[in-house]
User: What shape does this take?
Amino acid sequence: MRLTEGVVNFFQGQGYVIVSTIDKKGFPHNACKGIVEIDREGAIYLFDLYKGLTFANLSDNPRISITAVDEHKFIGYSLKGKARLVFKKEMKESLIKSWEDRIAGRLTSRVIRNMREEKGHPHHPEALLPRPEYLIQMQAEEVIDLTPGHIKGER
Assistant: This one.
């Protein structure tokens, strides 16, 4: 599925997204993940650093959704599709480099905000993140625009 440039740009601008998977009992599981890369062809790459419930759920059921909202602009999207787990030996080096660049950017932003006395977390949690062992490669099959109908007409 092809994604519009607006959808791609929206997701690229998010600090994190909510990834939803289904557990063995059929219940949804939600987790925060960072998008490493997204393209117009509907391929989305996310690193999952902890190999926990998201990993277990996707090992059993590849169905996944990725959701993000911008509260200030009152817009959001949910992408639905299927995921594939990609392990270290198969990963493109460019994806690891992209992840490292995003982490460096987040650290820089945190340091600047802390210098402006916009205190957030007392430490720099990004610096403590483990190295990725695998990533989630999702292929979008459906885009849900979460923007309320009356606001869509204003855009």
